[in-house]
Records
---
Amino acid sequence: MKGMVSIIDYGAGNLRSVKRALLHLGMPCRITDKPLEILSSDRVIFPGVGAAGQAMEVIKSRGLDVVIREVVDSGIPFLGICLGAQIILGQSEEDDTHCLNLIPGKVKRFSDPTLKIPHMGWNTVIKNRNHPLLDGIDARAQFYFVHSYYPEPEREEHIIATTEYGITFASIIGRDNVVATQFHLEKSGGFGLSILKNFSTWDGTVR
Amino acid sequence: MLSKRIIICLDVRDGKTTKGIQFKGNVDIGDPVDMARQYYEQGVDELVFYDITASSDDRGILIDVVNRVAQNIFIPFSVGGGIRDVSDMYRVLNAGAEKISVNTAAVLNPGLISAGAKIFGNQCIVLGMDAKRVEKTEQIPSGYEIWINGGRTPMEIDALWWAKEAESLGAGEICLNSIDADGTNKGYEIALTSLISDAVSIPVIASGGAGIPEHLRDVFVEAGADAALIASMVHYEHYTVGQIKAYLSGEGVPVRELI
């Protein structure tokens, strides 16, 4: 089906929420862990809630690490959400996990003892560079975050936007056809839906 | 900067939103799905549905409500009331809730917090606690006692101790309800909220007593609450979410405003 979005199924908690948001936007989608279905879709979403260690175990046991690399290499637009924005980096401090390394860098835990952990609630996202997914998004827009760890890409060029929580961390990262948001697009009201809508027409290139 | 959250609480009984005063005498005030959609459009940050259905036979109605809410509303919402085990948690999350709130069941079986946190993640588990001011004793050194069964049964458990214990068991958030303030519309219990909020490193939602926007400012600024639960002040159309947020913003409290 034209425009089909595959939501990668590795047992993560928010798969259905993501699917509901896509259906609300009229985007054809399926939750799947089948390599052929994933590779034949027009777009791929990699959601996630939970712990990095367990997620990577499931991903590897289902052979999805290999599939995800193929998706990325073949230029299919690829969107990570929350945990999906973390395990695309090289290494996570959470359970000392070796991750997918689609973007070089690390995932670190918020360490300021005066901060409430998790970073939970609505926060602003400050654009570092233009990206098609952010077209039409007001600079004052806020998005819903729930996380105790944050992505830290090695290269500045992979940081698309940042957010303040004690420190400044990368809240949208990406390169080429890969883009990922630390916040929950499926739970961020109208602006979250707008980014998903932008993803539905994104060709995977960055201007 | 992280915004302070405004969370609207909908007590649901037999599929209808209801509102009571100090846990007694409830009246039906509308359809929870319609109300949820209105509040979503007004810009509320989060919703909580408490199932206060008397008979456990009728609990399936709430799952249907959760399902319908999840199809229309794209902000986080949690569900509490009548959650007794991990399979109850699974049903609610699977229907589309973001978090589960446990209260009585967690006091009776604290292992429920750790079990839920392990399977679904800490961020999914909200500890709901009902605390009542009492004389300080050896058993209750903080002067706040935990009550269960919707505020009907005192437990001789210290609220401060329980909050820390729940955090260490893996709760991701605490929804702290003051039995004394609940339903009074005279303001949150500032002392209780600040006691608990200072003692734990997870977010604390203040609950019970909100009547006017000033009450929210007080609990955010003076007690350090991360979120504030409101009900009657919006259910009875005294205020819209937008009015409350505009007031808070003017007072320098960071909130997410509708753009």
---
Amino acid sequence: MTSSKPENLRFDLQVIASWIDDGSRVIGLGCGEGELLHYLKKHKNIRETGIEIVEERVAACIEKGLSVIQGDINEEITDYPDNSFDYVILSQTLQQVYEPLYLIHEMMRIGSKVIVSFPNFGHWHIRCQMLFKGIAPLTPQLPYQWYDTPNIRILSIRDFREFANRVGFTINEEVAIDSDNYYRSGKITRFLPNFRATYGIFLISKTNG
Amino acid sequence: MSEYIAHDAQGKTVGLVEKKYFTFAEPPNEMVLDSKAKLGPITIAYETYGTLDENGRNVVLVLHALTGDSHAAGYYDETDDKPGWWDNMIGPGKGIDTDKYFVVCSNVLGGCMGTTGPASIDPKTGNPYGMRFPFMTIADMVRAQKALLDHLGIRQILSMIGGSMGGMQLLQWTIQYPDMVKSAIPLATTMRHSALAIAFNEVARQSIIADPNWNNGDYYGAVKPNLGLSVARMIGHITYLSDEALRRKFGRRLQDKDDFSFNFEADFQVESYLRHQGAKFVERFDANSFLYITKAADYFDLTRNDASGSGVQAFSRAEARFMVASFTSDWLYPTYQSRDMVKAMKKNGLNVSFCEVEAEWGHDAFLLPNQRLTNLVKGFLESVYNDIQ
């Protein structure tokens, strides 16, 4: 189950992993079963921490030897002193966060670089469902019905860029990918990313340092 | 807490084990306790399982709870009908793998299972200490354990694990001897005894003290305060379970009868169970030890000298990597108390993991076979072991 080779790591996580420097301090918010942290610990010798709310996933992480705390990311993040980490990762969770602005500010407080990824609501598939069928979209990346979805924040890659601009942080890296959670493969989308990419991945930091 | 619950072995046993003894603090070099009283000589009863590595890097110290003892795993002889109290966790291939780790478990100071306690002979009088035994703290218990490890030539502890009062001892260890402890696994425990926990202990103590046979602690060689001690144990057992556990285990079912007896015999199964637990307990435990040890647990408060009361200052001395676990139905040391501890560790930048294990059996859950807990312990130990090799 645990991937040790980069090609076994989920594609979006491969992109994130490529941005992480060796030996850095990394916290994964909503880290799931710790796939990315485990990979980074093994291959990049990071000092890892994870926050995850589901007991089974927390247990899976600890059994792998990862340091993970069971709890709500919004609450747990407040305990960390400023600049405790080199990287703060929020992978495919932003769309489920009740107060995204607050959370991103907290992430910026505890770490110098923040990595955020999310399913792109601007994907053509979604646009078509809205336009031609007139229904709330269902896609492999956003598979939930409107009445039971955990995804309460719907945003596109373009939305996130504008958000960065408005609240004032710097986008250091931006990658749009066409991939799926269930596949290990994927590709980077350079042409019309907000139309063609399923996920956006950003590395951001505080403007002026 | 309710050690010696019947349980199925989770695998192979460590086999035959032997209780050993170490005596130190011979006068005039008595140990000075937190109360400023001096105590000596002190004998510690302990057991070890597995083999100590040449480099001494595979030591796991197991710390028992209120009424436990050094007999954590294995059997004393072939006729033993039950193994040590944590045999489901400790053994070859188990959560604490004795093929890999050298496990040490000792009876706490003030205990009655081989370590010096109120039932031991006071060399000054030639009689049992009774109420002349000095008051002690969790930190004093830890000092005695340190003396034992020094004697065994152990300078580094790979990990320490303990639930309830065992967890208090290991938390104390991590701040009292920070450079010795690489990692620690506090289970179902707390940084300080809550008013609720003190309240239950006080009721239990008063039931002993109210027993005329207690005789101000001077009952050795005479009739023991068994009634008081058994009621104390009955109270304890209620706190170790939970509303849900009691409901599932007993409900309102009657014991060996179809209707009420209209007298004060045990009508309900829960009454019968508590009486049985009380009666069994007095055969193996000393009432004065119960008084002294519960008092030590009540005094325990790592946040005492911390102006904020948060424990942040206490853990500023710690260096260990932690894996904290609580249990959903534990109302004696509820999850919020573990979370407070984790928070204090995080604020100190300590490497900490935390898992709230879903369990219906209340505080006792940490002692019962639980695959989730076993896997957590196993994975964590492997990780810290690999880190220091």
